[in-house]
Amino acid sequence: MSRTAIFPGSFNPFTQGHANIVERALRLFDRVIIAIGDNSHKEGAEEDNASIIEQLYQNNPQIKVIRYNCLTADLLQKENATCIIRGIRNETDLAYEQEIAKVNYTFFGAETIFLLADPALKEVSSSIVRELKKYGKDVSSYLPQQD
Prior knowledge:
The structure is a single chain. The chain is α/β, with parallel strands linked by helices. The protein is built from five helices and five strands; from the N terminus they run βαβαβαβαβα.
């Protein structure tokens, strides 16, 4: 039986921190679905994150990249996945993600696994990268490099 996890997010942009979570999730699961959700609360969602992430993982059959606009717990069921993966950088992330995980478990029976950010990458956030990019700064050191 194949074990599949969903790694949901807006990934705007997809950073080295996100890539690190994907790599580590692949140690625990046979497949990881990177699920790009519509988030009306985040700016700049017009960038085509899906194609960038697909190119990054084009040679890895264990990774699937999709867009979605439903509840993550519903997507979990639709994709026959066993749990949701979330990266945690700090206490603020943990508090926020715990509430969502509690709802997903209580209402849908969906399990969530938290992976702590790699200490070297925990300060990397999409919001900061977007802000730096907006003002013309080189953000390439925060983004995964394509092979």
